[in-house]
Specification:
This protein has six helices and eight strands. It comes from Oceanispirochaeta crateris.
């Protein structure tokens, strides 16, 4: 029995050895010089002593220091043109792990990977260490601290801006309030003047105009005569045309009280239109020359 088994084993071993017999020619690398992390194409012509069936491995080995991307096998008669694309992660000369390619196991393939590091430095891969801080943590922390420190200053600045704007709005509102009140009075007179007696029209018109001018010249003109108002307007240095227009309005309504003149509807409408124009001109003059 041993005489039968022993020759059979020798025959199988010899067949396996003959099946693994191959030669590599025209070994090339693209690019010729490559570094850690570069994509490299390794190509060579494989010659065998007998016909073999080669195929791309279903699963590439994963030793950790290299990554196989792809493998192409192109028959050239009885020979094969083989291209292997890979990425090395370790510098220096190293042998590729065996590649089971059908009838052949390709081994003893070596590559040399250049490195930009100091040749005297250790080439052993360092162990993976967890980061002490998440990337960007220090920058975010510094930003948060800066915001917290500057928050009181920002709040004080915003408070001053809001207070200044609010104060300006309130002052503007108060300064414009007498003019708006006078305009409302003019509109009310216009709505009711059709059946308004002469005396009521005179009192409403002159009373409203004197009250408005009192706020603008900071002097109570309620009981002032037209002559006293004219003297005040001259002293105030407002535009002469504007002063004459105001005095003319008082003189025209004075004739209603003292001379018994009648004011038709058209006359009243004309007076209201003129007083609107004069008061608007006075407001524009006031804004240009500050408050009277």
């Amino acid at each position: 029995m041993r005489r039968i088994i022993l020759p059979l084993l020798l025959f199988l071993v010899a067949g396996a050895l003959s099946a693994q017999s191959y030669q590599i020619h025209n070994l090339r690398f693209i690019p010729p010089e490559y570094y850690v992390g570069d994509t490299v194409e390794m190509s060579f012509l494989l010659k065998t002593d007998q016909a073999v069936n080669l195929k791309v491995p279903e699963i590439f080995p994963t030793p950790g220091w290299i990554r196989f991307l792809s493998m192409d096998i192109e028959p050239r008669g009885v020979d094969y043109q083989i291209s292997i694309r890979l990425i090395p992660y370790y510098p220096g000369t190293r042998a590729l792990p065996p590649l089971e390619s059908g009838d052949l196991i390709l081994n003893d393939l070596k590559i040399f990977t250049s490195s930009i590091l100091d040749s005297g430095a250790s080439r052993e891969l360092s162990e993976i260490r967890s980061p002490l801080l998440i990337p960007g943590t220090r920058a975010v922390g510094a930003l948060i601290v800066s915001l917290l420190l500057s928050l009181p200053i920002i709040l004080i600045f915003l408070f001053k801006v809001i207070r200044s704007r609010t104060g300006k709005i309130i002052r503007t509102y108060k300064l414009n309030l007498p003019y708006r009140q006078f305009q409302r009075l003019i509109r009310r007179i216009r709505r009711t003047m059709v059946n308004m007696p002469e005396k009521d029209f005179y009192l409403s018109f002159t009373g409203g105009l004197k009250k408005y001018l009192s706020t603008r010249f900071h002097q109570d003109l309620t009981s002032s005569t037209t002559s006293e108002i004219e003297a005040l307007l001259i002293r105030s240095h407002i535009h002469e045309t504007l002063a004459l227009s105001l005095v003319n309005l008082f003189n025209r309504v004075d004739r209603v009280k003292f001379a018994g003149d009648k004011l038709l509807y058209s006359d009243r409408e004309q007076l209201l239109g003129e007083v609107e124009d004069v008061s608007l001109a006075l407001e524009e003059w006031r804004k240009k020359h500050a408050d009277l």
